[in-house]
Specification:
Helix 3 links the parallel strand 2 and strand 3. Strands 7, 8, 9, 12, 13 and 14 form a 6-stranded mixed β-sheet that branches. The protein has a 5-stranded mixed β-sheet with strand order 1-3-2-4-16. The protein has about 475 residues and is α/β, with parallel strands linked by helices. It has 2 domains: about 260 residues, D-Maltodextrin-Binding Protein, domain 2 (3-Layer(aba) Sandwich); about 200 residues, Periplasmic binding protein-like II (D-Maltodextrin-Binding Protein, domain 2). It is about 40% helix and about 15% strand. The chain has 20 helices and 17 strands. Helix 3 packs antiparallel against helix 15. The structure holds calcium ion. Calcium ion binds next to loops.
């Protein structure tokens, strides 16, 4: 059974996901250079993080290696080669130097393509080798590992403390089943922040449309889907005078079909419910129906531009052709550095004002960490992980937000406050990470992209296979 599930998972993933690099280069991350490791503090939204002080056990590991196997698409999750004068790079470098000096350890990393890591680690563990202390790999590709019986339950590692502030409640809810946590998104992996989704707005255009006080709406809890719809649904300008709606015209919202599921998370929902009895897909119900009514009709408005398949809606936003756009934090570094207009960052809206909090999701390519079952000293590994998390929480994530995510109009401190709010509201969902295109997580995308409105039959045709799929996942976990 396990093998079947894994093959299905892997085949589907290989067929559906972007390839993730080929290189497999061993790297020694330790440099003989010592540095002044504490970067200068940043005042503002993240100042509270620097105040956190945790006393970890005092240990001298006498040069022991901390051996990491990591996805090559996000090397800087684990390692940067040297100081370059670029603040984020140097903060990551300083983190590793700090760990090295604190414990007399040596971080060594091997980078591989994300689709190869599950096999590498499975073969290694099944051969009884204690070859790696930690893996750090693409979240969805790692899903197959969770059902291979090769990873350690992190709840059993005494030096990992899930009450530390970087382990969110959502991580515990979504990555554990019956007190077993085999994988987790960790603060030490910057890619988790980079994959975080948000809503960008063009501040200059917003002023033209008399849209003001957006940050105050967020703070006041009144930033809702109906507000977003009212600000965007009729915003359309035929820029080229072609009398047809082209990609290059001006729209209220830039998006893609794949974003439709984001609203489900933003409204505080998930695609599965984990109970003591098992994992149940969320069924066709009144809430689901009203969700689809709202999003499908919104995505048919003239002010919404969306496209099918993969890609980003942010380049056209960067060109000034969208009032709002949905994208990831990594889009800022990729596309918004040289944007002429001022832009701001907002959380995805709530369903209504009664909803208690904002929620967002992280795209599935970010790293999650796991500890191979064959590790002989899990306490050492846990201590390394938590120290890297600690330093990353205090310095690396705030530095990322204060440099990579900052608009060139540096006066925009509100954005930093929003970024902090968004990061602390990320929702992880078992029902997305292990969906394997058999559950319901991709129905919103399918419905938008197909233009179908027959939700009832869409659900009815899939419910049996969805339930079978989740039953098989449960079986695999319980036999682990
Ligand atoms: Ca046109």
């Amino acid at each position: 059974m396990k093998r079947t599930i894994c093959m299905i998972l892997l085949c589907a993933l290989l067929a559906s996901l972007t390839a993730c690099g080929e290189a497999s280069t061993p790297v020694d991350t330790t440099s003989p250079t010592t540095t002044d490791t504490q970067p200068a503090g940043e005042e503002g939204a993240f100042a509270y993080r620097e105040k956190l002080e945790i006393e970890f056990p005092d240990k001298n590991y006498e040069g022991r290696e901390f051996r990491v196997l990591a996805q090559d698409a996000y090397e800087r999750d684990i390692y940067v080669e040297s100081e370059t004068g670029e603040v984020l790079n140097d903060t990551i470098y300083a983190r590793n130097q700090w760990l090295t000096e604190q414990y007399n350890v040596k971080i060594t990393a091997v980078f591989e393509a994300c689709d190869k890591i599950p096999n590498t680690i499975t073969n290694s563990v099944l051969a009884g080798e204690d070859a790696y202390d930690m893996i750090s790999n693409h979240a969805i590709f790692s899903g197959s590992l969770a059902i291979q019986n090769v990873l350690m339950n992190m709840f059993d590692v005494e030096t990992i403390d899930f009450s530390y502030p970087w382990w969110s409640e959502s991580i515990l809810d979504s990555f554990s089943y019956k007190n077993t946590a085999l994988l987790a998104p960790a603060e030490l992996c910057l890619s988790v922040s980079e994959a975080t989704q948000c809503l960008f707005f063009n501040a200059d255009k917003a002023a033209d449309y008399q849209i003001t006080g957006l940050y105050d709406e967020v703070r006041g809890g009144t930033w809702t889907i109906d507000k977003l719809i009212s600000y965007t649904k009729d915003v359309y300008v035929d820029l080229d005078g072609s009398t047809t709606a082209d990609d290059t015209d001006f729209y209220g919202l830039g998006s893609k079909g794949g974003h439709a599921m984001f609203y489900w998370y933003a409204f505080g929902e998930k695609f599965v419910e984990i109970t003591d009895e098992g994992i149940e897909p969320v069924l066709y119900n009144e809430k689901v129906v009203s969700f689809f009514d709202k999003i499908l009709s919104y995505y048919n408005e003239p002010g919404v531009h969306w496209f099918k398949g993969s890609g980003s809606a942010v380049p056209q936003f960067a060109d000034g052709n969208r009032l709002f756009a949905i994208g990831g934090f990594d889009d800022v570094e990729k596309y918004l550095r040289d944007m002429e207009s001022e832009f701001g960052i907002l959380p995805l809206p709530k369903l209504d004002e009664a909803q208690e909090a904002y929620h967002t999701m992280a795209g599935g390519a970010h790293s999650v960490i796991g500890i191979p079952k064959t590790v002989s000293d899990p306490e050492f590994v846990g201590l390394m992980i938590e120290n890297l998390n600690y330093y990353s929480y205090k310095y690396v994530t705030p530095t990322y937000c204060n440099t990579a995510l900052k608009s060139k109009y540096a006066r925009d401190d509100d954005s930093m406050e929003m970024i902090d709010l968004i990061l602390s509201s990320v929702v992880f969902d078992f029902g997305y990470l292990l969906d394997n295109w058999k559950g319901f997580a991709f129905i919103p995308q399918n419905m938008v992209e197909s233009g179908s409105s027959d939700l009832a039959s869409n659900y009815a045709s899939r419910i049996t296979s969805a339930q079978e799929w989740w039953n098989s996942v449960v079986e695999a976990f319980e036999n682990d």
